[in-house]
Amino acid sequence: MIVESIEKVCQGPAKLRELGCLAVGELVVQALWKGQLKFQSIYIPEPLERALREWIGVVPNSLRQDILNKSSHILFSTIGRVTEMSSSTVPIMLAAIMETLYSSSLQSIEVWTDFHWHQEARMKVLHLLHSQQTTVKNLHLTCYKTPIFQFQALSFSERFLLMNVLNKFSHLKQLSVPYVADDDLLAKLGGGACPQLECLDVQGSWE
Fold it and tell me: Could you say which of 17, 48, 64, 140 is the most buried, measured as most Cβ atoms within 10 Å of its Cβ?
C-alpha cells in the first residue's frame, strides 16, 4: 500500500526516504485513530501522547518535516480508505498529527486549509505554536485562506492567541496570513515581532 501511494505521485520506483516517511506517518495515524476513539476527541490520551513523542523523538528533524508535510495525504491514504471521515474528524485528526510531529526546530509549518471549519482544532494548533520559542522560518496559515474569513472576523480569543503566536517566531522569514491580517497584526509585525521577516502575504485581508 505504501509503494502504491508513492507510485501515484512519483515517476519511477519509490525512494527509500519517501517509503520511510510514509511508513512512519501511517503508524502515527493508525495509533492516533485507535487511541482517540476514532476521531471523537480532540485530546490525545496522555499515555499515547507520551509513547508517540518518545517513539518519534529519535526521528531527525528533516525526516519529521517530510512526514508532517505529507500528513494530509497519509491520513486520507490510510484511515480514509477504511472509514468515512467528516468535516469535523479530519481537522481533529490533523491537529493530533501536528501535535505529535511538531518540533520547534522545523523549517516550515503549514496550518492546512482543512482546519478552517473547526475552530477547536485551529485553537489547539495555535496553542501548540505558542507553547515555545521556535526557529521555524516559514509559517503558512492557510487555514484562513477561505471566503469564510473574508466576511467573518475571528473571535477575540483566537485573534488574541494568533497575535501572541508571532512572539514565538523571531526567526521567521516568510509569513502567510490571508484574510485575517488586520491593522493590529500588521502593527505588531511592524513593531518588530518577527525581526527577520522578508516576505509577508496578507491576500484577501480588508481591514
Answer: 64
The helix (H) or strand (E) run that includes residue 77 is: helix 71-78
Copy the grid coordinates of residue 11.
515517476
Give the span between the Cα atoms of 17 and 116, in whole angstroms: 31
69 close to 111: Cβ distance less than 8 angstroms: no
Handedness of CA 88, 89, 94, 97 (dihedral sign): positive
Query: pLDDT grade, residue 147 (50/70/90)?
Result: confident
DSSP 174-197: EEE-TTT--HHHHHHHHTTSSTT-
Phi, psi of 182 (to 5 degrees): -90, -175
Q: What is the radius of gyration, based on Cα positions, of the chain? A: 17
Q: Determine if the pTM surpasses 0.70.
A: yes
The cell numbers describing 182, all together, are 488586520
Residue 30: φ, ψ to 5°:
-65, -40
Report which residue type is found at 152: Q
- Mean pLDDT for the stretch of residues 3-22: 61
Pairing mode, if any, of strands 199-201 and 108-110?
Answer: unpaired
User: What's the gap between Cα 54 and its chain centre?
Assistant: 20
DSSP designation for 146:
S
Angle in degrees, CA 152, 154, 157, rounded to 5: 155
